[in-house]
């Protein structure tokens, strides 16, 4: 990657990120986001995901180099106040991320579409157990999953909610998706499935008036859904940049040996 890239600084509203930005602004000749080759994002994972989602609606999608001034920072790089940000970005390793498309039909027949970078999750809205029919590539694979819900995670998101729900960690580049039940009641022993990224998944809600279900694409929620179709986007591709030796792929690999 060329060292003369035009960089734009995008900063979270948090005090920690704002203080970091104040020190960083004087170290580089920044440009406006519309003129940039790369966005340098200061904050945490949530703010980086917010920035990536905003870019999905832009005419031009730029690589993002995240600097962790948040809490977990799994998708971010370490903040090095004594290093040249231009050199760090120039040497960075590129990781392609393919978001999911969530197409929803609600009980009153409204239709919506949202993107998810981490996961799409279906969650019961009341004390009543959700009952969901699972369809993959037009074939019913499970007539009824009863539980708190189910989710579909990308490799980049497999260490987030998916891992907390006992789903598998997916290596980057595997072109697979994790299909993971959330607190399943029946079938109790079903642990989920790993399916090709090319597959189309559909969830059909059973008894939706009695057992309402919400669908969530990262931070976008739709309540009282009837059907949800999910597929990996073939038109959108996002790029994350990581410092050498500290890539997201290495973090995902290391996460599998945490005890």
Element layout with pairings:
Blueprint: E1 7-11, H1 15-24, E2 38-43, H2 45-55, E3 64-68, H3 85-90, E4 93-97, E5 100-106, E6 111-116, E7 119-124, E8 130-136, E9 139-153, H4 161-164, E10 176-186, E11 193-196, E12 201-205, E13 213-217, E14 220-222, E15 225-232, E16 238-242, H5 248-255
Parallel strand pairs: 1-2, 2-3, 3-16
Antiparallel strand pairs: 4-16, 5-6, 5-15, 7-9, 7-13, 8-9, 8-12, 9-10, 10-11, 12-15, 13-14
Number of strands: 16
Largest sheet: 11 strands, antiparallel
So what's the CATH class of the largest domain?
Mainly Beta
Instruction: Give the strand content.
Output: 35-45%
Distance between the termini: 37 Å
CATH topology of the largest domain: Tumour Suppressor Smad4
User: Mean of residue pLDDT?
Assistant: 91
Question: What class do helices, strands and sheet pairing give?
Answer: alpha+beta
Oligomer status: single chain
The percent range for helix content is: 10-25%
User: What is the assigned CATH homologous superfamily of the largest domain?
Assistant: Probable inorganic polyphosphate/atp-NAD kinase, domain 2
Runs in which pLDDT lies below 50 for 5 or more consecutive residues are: none
Total of helices: 5
What is the CA-based Rg, rounded?
20 Å
Q: Write down the overall geometry.
A: elongated
Give the helices and strands as they follow along the chain.
EHEHEHEEEEEEHEEEEEEEH
What is the second-level CATH architecture of the largest domain? Sandwich
Number of domains: 2
């Amino acid at each position: 990657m060329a060292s003369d890239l035009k960089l734009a600084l995008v900063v979270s509203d948090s005090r920690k990120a704002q203080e970091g930005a104040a020190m960083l602004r004087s170290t580089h000749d920044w440009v406006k986001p519309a003129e940039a080759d790369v966005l340098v994002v200061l904050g945490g994972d949530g703010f980086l995901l917010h920035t990536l989602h905003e870019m999905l609606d832009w005419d031009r999608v730029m690589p993002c180099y995240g600097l962790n001034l948040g809490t977990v920072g799994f998708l971010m790089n370490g903040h090095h106040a004594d290093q040249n940000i231009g050199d760090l970005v120039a040497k960075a390793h590129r990781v392609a991320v393919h978001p999911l498309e969530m197409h929803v039909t609600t009980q009153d027949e409204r239709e919506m579409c949202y993107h998810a970078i981490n996961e799409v999750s279906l969650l019961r809205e009341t004390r009543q157990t959700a009952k969901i029919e699972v369809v993959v590539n037009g074939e019913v694979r499970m007539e009824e999953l009863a539980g708190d819900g189910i989710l579909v995670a990308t490799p980049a998101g497999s260490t987030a909610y998916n891992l907390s729900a006992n789903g598998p960690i997916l290596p980057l580049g595997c072109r697979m998706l994790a299909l993971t039940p959330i607190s399943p009641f029946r079938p109790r022993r079903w642990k989920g499935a790993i399916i090709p990224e090319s597959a189309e998944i559909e969830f059909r809600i059973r008894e939706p008036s009695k057992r309402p279900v919400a669908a969530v694409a990262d931070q976008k929620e739709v309540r009282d859904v009837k059907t949800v179709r999910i597929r990996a986007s073939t038109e959108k591709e996002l790029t994350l940049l990581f410092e050498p030796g500290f890539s997201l792929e290495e973090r995902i690999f290391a996460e599998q040996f945490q005890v």
